[in-house]
């Protein structure tokens, strides 16, 4: 019998030509997105203040397949298609009959999946004459991706980086600046939103909700600037579906199909990117038993402990209001190393899938996540990003269940980025300084008191 492949590669000719839109296959439409001031459904004209019309049309599209522009595909070819690995050494260490595959997005120039949408968003903004993009970033993967995309397309980029991550991850900041980005620790003195937060709490560690407020304000107050978001919105998840489309082709090359698809979730982009093309098969009935598991931190347990309701996408209540699982727009999570997962809400699409029982969710503490990351590093050699390590933890748990039950299942997870700029986190783990954080229900309940009064 031939030995299994360690890695499965696709030629550039197999790079997807369209993005897949899961919205087209939902039985029930998503709830409307509301204007933050009026709490009435937003119109394209409302959104056009901070987004280009081409992306707005993708946001509300019900088309199943949306063409990828040739210029975007040419830039994608710098790193796509990305490799699919069989984690043979991890399987052996776990003594599991399970087959574990992972899609490795860390081969992109910035080391994560984020450029898949950054390049697309910069392209569409450039087409409509925008000169600068403003955005937020947690751990820095998104900020560096957008800074790179803007450099490729001759645009300026301003990044509001969550303060706790700004100090934890100086090399992410330097990477953004190397690409030409202007980076501020958020909350900052650059915006009214930031100054307001600092006036109340000069030592605020920041949050993605706060950083979003600053970036939205920046975009809304400068005619040549638009806002760009690295997760949450439908068009962002849409652009990421190149991940799952490639993975389906790669698994088909070795006659495999996953029993379970796993990815970490902060806003939902890498989860939707790998899971949605497979969930299409679940929704059409061809793979009814497929499981998809969203993995989040106990320090910010949006799906597992949040409420499914309408909430603002940011702390200062400037971003649109969407129905999603939320911990409250004022919720500020503890300063865990997985900065990209510290978002109070979640993708409306991912939230709807969870609410309708189509996907599952699980939350982990920080220390066991790093234990799984260390096992992965010692077997597969790659140091994973703290965010991606959450998916590894869930994959390991699934594989152990297979060992205990004596069942062979095929597990696929998205290794959404490497952790070579996150070595301080590993130093904290190795030195015993890493702490677990879980917020008492009272803190979540307090934040949830400030939800918008949406008309019935």
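^ structure tokens above, recovered residues below v
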């Amino acid at each position: 019998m031939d030995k299994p492949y360690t890695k499965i590669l696709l030629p550039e000719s197999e790079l997807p030509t369209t993005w897949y839109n899961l919205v087209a296959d939902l039985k029930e439409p998503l709830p409307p997105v509301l204007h933050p001031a009026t709490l009435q459904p937003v119109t394209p004209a409302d959104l056009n203040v901070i987004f280009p019309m081409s992306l707005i049309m993708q946001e509300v599209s019900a088309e199943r397949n949306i063409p990828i522009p040739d210029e975007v595909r040419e830039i994608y070819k710098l790193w796509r298609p990305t490799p699919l690995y069989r984690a043979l050494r991890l399987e052996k260490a776990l003594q599991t009959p399970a087959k574990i595959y992972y899609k490795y997005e860390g081969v992109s120039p910035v080391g994560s999946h984020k450029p898949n949408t950054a390049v697309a968003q910069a392209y569409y903004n450039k087409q409509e004459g925008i000169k600068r993009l403003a955005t937020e970033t947690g751990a820095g993967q998104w900020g560096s991706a957008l800074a790179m995309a803007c450099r490729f397309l001759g645009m300026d980029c301003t990044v509001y980086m969550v303060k706790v991550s700004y100090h934890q991850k100086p090399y992410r900041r330097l990477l953004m600046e190397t690409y030409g980005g202007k980076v501020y620790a958020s909350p900052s003195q650059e915006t009214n939103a930031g100054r307001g937060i600092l006036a109340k709490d000069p030592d605020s560690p920041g949050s993605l909700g706060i950083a979003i407020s600053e970036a939205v304000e920046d975009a809304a107050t400068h005619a040549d600037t638009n806002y760009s978001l690295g997760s949450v919105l439908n068009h962002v998840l849409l652009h990421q579906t190149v991940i799952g489309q490639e993975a389906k082709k790669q698994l088909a090359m070795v006659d495999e199909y996953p029993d379970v698809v796993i990815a970490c979730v902060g806003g939902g982009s890498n989860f939707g990117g790998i899971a949605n093309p497979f969930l299409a098969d679940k929704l059409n009935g061809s793979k009814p038993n497929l499981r998809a598991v969203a993995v989040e931190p106990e320090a910010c347990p949006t799906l597992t402990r949040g409420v499914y309701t309408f909430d603002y996408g940011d702390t200062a209540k400037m971003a649109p209001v969407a129905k999603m699982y939320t911990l409250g727009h004022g919720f500020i999570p503890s300063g865990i190393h997985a900065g990209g997962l510290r978002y109070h809400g979640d993708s409306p699409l991912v939230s709807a899938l969870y609410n309708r029982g189509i996907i599952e969710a699980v939350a982990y503490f920080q220390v066991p996540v790093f234990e799984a990351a260390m096992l992965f590093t010692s077997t597969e050699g790659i140091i994973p990003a703290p965010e991606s390590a959450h998916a590894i933890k869930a994959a390991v748990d699934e594989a152990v269940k297979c060992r205990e039950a004596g069942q062979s299942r095929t597990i696929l997870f998205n290794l959404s980025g490497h952790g070579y700029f996150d070595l301080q986190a590993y130093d904290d783990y190795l030195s015993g300084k890493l702490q677990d954080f879980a917020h008492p229900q009272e803190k979540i309940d307090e934040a949830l008191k400030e939800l918008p009064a949406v008309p019935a």
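The longest helix spans residues 386-405.
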